[in-house]
Amino acid sequence: MNGFPSVEVLIHAGRQRVPYPVALEWMHIRAESVRAGGVEAVALLEHDPVYTLGARAARASLRVPESSLPAPLVEADRGGDVTWHGPGQLVLYPVLDLRIRGLRAGDYVRALESVAIDTIGAWGIEGVRIPGRPGVWVDGTKIAAVGVRIDRGISRHGLALNVAPDLGWFDAIVPCGIDGAGVTSMAALRGEAPPLPSVAEVMAKAFSQTFGLVRTEAAIA
Q1: Cα separation, 126 vs 180, whole angstroms
Q2: How confident is the model over 138-160, as a mean pLDDT?
Q3: Which residue in 41, 176, 196, 213 is the catalytic one?
Q4: Which of 80, 73, 34 shows the shortest CA–CA distance to 50?
Q5: What is the DSSP string of the chain?
Q6: 4-40 pLDDT tens trace
Q7: If both were cysteines, with which of 71, 89, 106, 144 could 136 make a disulfide (CB 3.0 to 4.6 Å apart)?
Q8: Domain range holding 180?
Q9: What pTM did the predictor assign?
Q10: What is the CATH number of the domain that holds 102?
Q11: Helices 196-211 and 105-121 meet at what angle, rounded to 10?
């Protein structure tokens, strides 16, 4: 995949949390820019606590009434069911033109899974794919979720990796709508939390290598 234009890499993880609505607006604006020939971008973020519902998600995946959720619930136009974002979780939002890369949706999802697998592998954690269950798994528990939106060839949303969140946030939902499948984190598996900025840097490198990108640094706001 080498030979494509450079991509702006925006690393906010470990510096400041980005509210989910701000990230949504950035993705929409950036997608229109890329569609018009602008520079592609990828953001690595940490959010304030929020639950998000995918475009075809069912509120039946909420284990408590919406009014009792410990964080706001936001409807998103990505694939996948319900999930949580918040402190200790690293989120990757690529805005890429998949048409120029010849990537179909399934290939793109597998590439994002490879980014997560390579990232946690740097800390000695072996992640795997499970057929029919997008994301990355360790010993039957999900450590990274994937939910994307591809609109006229331009990608939005992406990948969420549990670095060191309080996993209790997931108790209020059926994560990704998969009943009986638990969640885990790098901290839970290692017994300590790797620094989020370090994980973000490793993920940025893994993303650049997987997609054959040349990095330039930028900022969201």
Answers
A1: 21
A2: 95
A3: 176
A4: 73
A5: -TTPPPEEEEE-TTT----HHHHHHHHHHHHHHHHTT--EEEEEE-PPSEEEE-TT--GGGBSS-GGG-SS-EEE-SSSSSEEEE-TTEEEEEEE-BHHHHT--HHHHHHHHHHHHHHHHHTTT---EEETTEEEEEETTEEEEEEEEEEETTEEEEEEEEESS--GGGGGGB-GGG-TT--B--HHHHHSSPPPHHHHHHHHHHHHHHHHT--EEE----
A6: 557 888 888 767 899 999 999 999 999 999 999 998 9
A7: 144
A8: 7-217
A9: 0.92
A10: 3.30.930.10
A11: 140
Predicted confidence at residue 60, as pLDDT, reads 79
Whether 26 is covered by a domain: the verdict is yes
For residue 2, being part of any structural domain is answered with no
Confidence of residue 199 (pLDDT cuts 50, 70, 90): very high
* Structure tokens that stand for 122 in this block: 């740097």
**Catalytic residue list contains 87:** no
**pLDDT tier, 2 (very low <50, low <70, confident <90, very high otherwise):** very low
Mean pLDDT of 121-125: 97
The whole-number average pLDDT for the span 50-77 is 87
